[in-house]
Amino acid sequence: MTAKILMVDDEPDVVETVRYRLQQAGHEVDIADNGLVALGMVRAGKYDLLVLDVMLPGENGYRVAHYVREDERQGVYERRLPIILLTARDLSAEPEREKMFMDFSGADRVIYKPFDLDHLTRNIDELLAEVPPAG
Amino acid sequence: MTTAADRTSLPRSMSALRLRVFVLLRLTLIIATSYLALAQSDFRSAPAPLAILILLGLLSNFLGPLLPRRLLESPKFLATVILVDTAWITVALVASGRVSADFFYLYFFILFLAAMGENLTLIVLGTLAVCAAYFFILLASGGIASLLTTSTLIRVPFLLSVATFYGYLVDRLRHERQRSHQEAAVISSLRENQRDIEEVNRRLEREIGVRRQAEEQLKRLSEVKTEFVSTVSHELRTPLTSIKNALDLLRPALDELGEPQQRFVQIAQRNVRRLAHIIDDLLDVSRIEAGQMSFSFAPARVESVLAAVMTSLQPEAEKSSLKVALQVEPELPDIWADAQRIEQVVSNLLSNAIKFTPAGGRVTVTAERRDDDIEIAVADTGIGLSDEDRERVFEPFYQAGDSLTDRVKGTGLGLAISRSMVAAHGGDLLVESRPAEGSRFHFKVPAAGPRATEIVDFERACREYSAYPFFSLLVLVPAVTEGKDAEEIVAVLGRLKEQLLTVLPRSSDRLHMQAACGRLLLVLLGTDRDGGLIVRSKVERLLAGVEAGGRVALVHGPAAFPEDGRTGFQLIRAATIAAGRREIT
Fold this sequence. Notes:
The complex is a heterodimer.
Chain A: E1 4-8, H1 12-24, E2 28-32, H2 35-44, E3 49-53, H3 61-74, E4 83-87, H4 95-105, E5 109-112, H5 117-130
Parallel strand pairs in A: 1-2, 1-3, 3-4, 4-5
Chain B: H1 4-38, H2 48-63, H3 69-73, H4 77-96, H5 101-116, H6 120-147, H7 150-250, H8 259-289, E1 298-300, H9 302-319, E2 323-328, E3 335-337, H10 339-355, E4 362-370, E5 373-380, H11 387-392, H12 414-424, E6 430-434, E7 438-446, H13 450-465, E8 470-477, H14 486-503, E9 511-516, E10 519-525, H15 529-544, E11 551-558, H16 568-578
Parallel strand pairs in B: 2-4
Antiparallel strand pairs in B: 1-3, 4-5, 5-7, 6-7, 8-10, 8-11, 9-10
């Protein structure tokens, strides 16, 4: 199953490796290095999935995801965009805060850095299986 | 020590004395005036002014008690009275009309003496001398016969009595003056004392302020430390992600590389994993220290927790050619635990066991019932621990064994973290070990139930206390707990709590009171040993009058835990032993 994925991260090295792996898996990957650019791209292009780093310059990942969900509530998009957050701030030991952030952002999954690339593709496949890609 | 009562009674006695003098003076005047009237040869021919004076004297005597205190206390009061009375007696003498001029002069001379004189003896002696001189003059001028006339015989005692009376008054005045000087001195020294006390109070308040500030600074410092560790860890994770991803992407190409190069990639991969693990552990430690690690307690099945660990570590065990066995006592009750944390602890212990046990050895994980607890143990037939290692193995960053041996090393944080996690469950991670024979790590987790909830709640509260650099923990063991049922003990504790609130700072947010395990625990935040001792003596004094009394023990901590590894539960246990009671089981 191939999909159009937007990857948002300001770390070129992380972006390069992730993109390589996703392209290997047959996905089409676009890149953004900050939240506002990403929001514009999400509004303009039809993406099947968003891979979003949390610690971004300007608007952070939680907020970008939150805005996307706001747009969805306004009916800007035809369908719901699955979102995976990437973050180095592992909050699994603080479940209350983790839940708070996840509820705010409305993201589907969170993956803590450093992560396994296979783990990421597995998550992507699962989410895509839930919502079939457009077209 | 001067009490407030002494201070107020001094002026009161002084005004009472003045009143007495005033009344005495009145009486003397009446007697003197009456005497002058009686000295007339014919009583009926006594002039009317004398009678009026006597009447006035009698009336004025009733005035005495009505005089306002302020008037009595005025320094000019007695002087005025003496002046008025001098005028009075003079008027009386003149009115009697039978006073010869010489007597009149003598009289004024004596008044003068009395006014100048400083004490009674001198005045009386002076009067006697004057009288002697008078007698001598009379004797010289009129012979012995003139001495024996009634008027002369009456005049001399009269003069003497007037002199004595004035002498007495002057004497009293002098005493009074002295006394008021002393009183002023006492009052000023009291004021000074009060100033000293106020100064001491101010200094104490300043000290308390400084200490509070220090406390807050320490608290902030520890927050900054935690924040720093957290930030650094996150910053480290981002480059680590790139390295790990890059290495992962190399994997399909490994076959194309030569044997040594393949090994190098594996080394890099292994060390990335290790680094990630170190960062995780560091974060855990800083979270535990800051009391930020949250636990979600729920009843958990022991078998499923342990089985999960076994499954995840089975590959490693097989790689090391070890036999790993799981023995769970049948029909174990559920434990009250954060299953994920207990899993982490057992996983830590098991991977250590696998690491330190040579091929062919055995590792056994067991779970057994111990009264109200479940004991979980991981035993191996590995290299074991020396006496020193056994003591220090729970210290952060301590690496057991000979540093020269080529052993796979962990972060040295695993056991420290595990111990803290076990402590959060109210237990203690312990080890029995002999070199070359193997080690057995074990800990108890309470079985789900009200007691477990109580223990765990207290541990959670204690983690909050640990944010304070100073605290004192008082453990109160009621005298009646032996052989009573739980409900009764709870009632006794409730009563004690109520009574304690009457002697302890009620409004203080720094006092935490909690009933746990049949004890009443009082945690005084921001209170060091001295403060704790004061509160303890207060509590002990109160308990002396209470039927359910009991004993109090004090444990104090300048941030004693969890930095030094002690947990709230261990503190209670130590304090309970100090209180001379059975250890909490």
